[in-house]
YhzD-like protein
Amino acid sequence: MADYFLTVFDKSGKKLYDKSFSATDNSEAKEIGLNKLKELEFNEHTHRCVTADGKLVLFQR
């Protein structure tokens, strides 16, 4: 398991959501991130999901 970080921003750049979670690999992390965005209704906001060492897994502007 590895740690990932999901962050959502509003149009001004303010963080609306910033939480970590664990996943077995990047594919699972992307799926978890997309599900969380949908659950919180943030899928249309700017967001990113990165690994603990900063590798980008998911991004939407």
Remarks:
- Strands lie at 2-9, 15-23, 46-51, 56-60.
- Residues 26-40 form the longest helix (15 residues).
